[in-house]
Design brief:
Length: about 190
């Protein structure tokens, strides 16, 4: 018999409460993390509930703040969420979040990513996330101005993360990622 720690049980319960609220606001629930001290833990351990949401398009801070208030109301009203004070944080995933689902890849389109392949002998591949289909993603690779694309099977990816990137992608890179002229102009002006 396996005993589930109270934090995991609470996280699973909060997930069921929060998922429909996030969906009603057009967000996907990406994760719920709970840090809740168990009886006998030090008294200075803070209680924390961290909820990660994401959606297609840009995340709006005002919308996330409204979502956070609604989630807080839902959690406060539920009798199975302990009444002790806790810190609630609702936000979007950081850039170091692994790309594990098709929607993660779709949302990363045009962004620089680092991909480790399952083949231990294969080097890390770095490029911009491009077109995605059922079982492959195209990476647009810029090697000292020589731009080409490479199709990679999703099943062959061991790990992939978005990288912090301060460079301005070239028009050709964005074209190969699948952007149209208007989207390219927005990206090049820093609005996309």
């Amino acid at each position: 018999m396996q005993i589930t720690p109270p934090s995991q049980t609470l996280a699973a319960h909060i997930t069921t409460l929060v998922e429909p609220v996030a969906a009603a606001h057009g967000y996907d629930l990406e994760g719920v993390s709970v840090r809740w001290p168990e009886p006998g833990d030090r008294s200075d351990v803070r209680r924390e509930v961290t909820i990660t949401v994401d959606r297609d398009g840009a995340n709006d801070l005002d919308e996330i703040a409204a979502l956070s208030r609604e989630i807080s109301t839902v959690l406060d009203a539920d009798p199975d969420v302990p009444g002790e004070p806790y810190e609630l944080e609702v936000g979007s995933p950081g850039v170091d979040r692994p790309l594990t689902t098709a929607r993660h890849w779709r949302r990363a389109c045009g962004r620089k990513v680092a991909v480790d392949l399952a083949d231990q002998d294969a080097p890390r591949v770095t490029g911009r996330a491009g077109a995605l289909d059922d079982d492959t993603v195209t990476l647009v690779i810029n090697e000292r101005g020589r731009i080409h694309s490479r199709t990679i099977e999703l099943a062959s990816i061991a790990k992939a993360v978005v990288q912090v990137d301060f460079s301005l992608p070239s028009v050709r890179e964005l074209e190969l990622c699948g952007f149209d002229e208007e989207q390219i102009a927005e990206r090049r002006q820093g609005r996309g």
